[in-house]
Known about the structure:
By secondary structure, the chain is of the alpha/beta class. It is 42% helix and 26% strand. The chain has one domain: Rossmann fold (3-Layer(aba) Sandwich), CATH 3.40.50.10600. The protein contains 5 helices and 6 strands, in the order H-E-E-H-E-H-E-H-E-H-E. The radius of gyration is 18 Å and the shape is globular. The termini are far apart. 30% of the residues are buried.
Amino acid sequence: MRDFLKDWEGVSSRMETQMIERLEQSHKAVFGFKVTGELTADDVTNISEQLENCTAQHKKPIGLVADLSDMHGATWAARWEEMRFLSRHTDHVARLAVISNDEWEDVSKIALVAAAALQAQTLYFQPSEIAHAWHWVKMARTDDSMPTRVMYPGKGLFHNYTPEYMGV
């Protein structure tokens, strides 16, 4: 019995640290979520369902806030589900604010593929700038006193691309 309780405590503590939750500030055309612990495929599926409910209520693309400041990695299955999630929402998200404790250049390298798949304008914010992130996704304007860290300009992978053979 003692071993069972010890095993259950381990499962319980993992369940508490592996979660994704919708943020209270989410309303109307702005959706925010926070990842705590290691991201799993089930987490991505659950938040995707909530986002789909939000986008179904709005005809215009929404703003998205992703607070990754307490995230501690992701499983490969979660990354795969994330790409499926992003590809389903390319027409539904206009702006993505990524909040992280990591240096923005490092986050940008990791998130570039995801941001390009989503094709939404993507900016990086530090946790102390979360109010500015919410303002930006709502209003599409940044505060002039804040640094603007563009992770993805939001114009699509092949914006201004001309194949080499076109000039022949």
